[in-house]
Design brief:
The protein is mainly alpha-helical. It has 5 helices and 2 strands, in the order αββαααα. Strands 1-2 form a two-stranded antiparallel ribbon. A hairpin with a 2-residue loop joins strand 1 and strand 2.
């Protein structure tokens, strides 16, 4: 259970790092984002490293069924991020499309 919890938290951190890059977030004055401190290039690599480390930890400690579920969920989250990016600044975005992004990106 500890490995699962640590893996999920690492996966969550990786998504936050990538999200900050996409959103050009600077963070709060006392807690600046990685991309604000180090730039996008290093931040993308750090996000990828945390993501890969998460799946390595999972692969060493979790059953295949859980790995498959987490892999599928990660794909859904990424698809939600891509969909959100395509719809950025789209004034014709429907409520249905908005909630589809929320379901994939956030609710997953």
């Amino acid at each position: 259970m500890i490995a699962l919890g640590a893996s999920l938290e690492m996966l969550h951190v990786a998504t936050l790092i990538h999200d900050d890059i996409v959103d050009h977030s600077e963070g709060a004055p006392e807690t600046k984002t990685l991309n604000f401190k180090w730039g996008n290039e290093i931040s993308v690599l750090m996000g990828d490293y945390v993501f890969a480390s998460s799946f390595y930890l999972m692969s060493q400690n979790l059953p295949r069924e859980i790995l498959e579920t987490l892999s599928d969920t990660t794909n859904v989250i990424c698809r939600g991020e891509i969909t959100e990016t395509f719809h950025r600044f789209n004034p014709d975005l429907t409520e249905e499309q908005y909630f589809a992004v929320v379901r994939e990106k956030t609710a997953s």
